[in-house]
Amino acid sequence: MPRNRNHTPEIRCIHFPSTVESKSTSVPYTKQQLQEFFKQHDKDGDKLLSKEELKKAFDDLHSRNPGFRAWRAMGKADADGDQHISQQEMEALLDYAVGKKYPVKA
Question: What is the pLDDT of residue 6?
Answer without folding.
Answer: 61
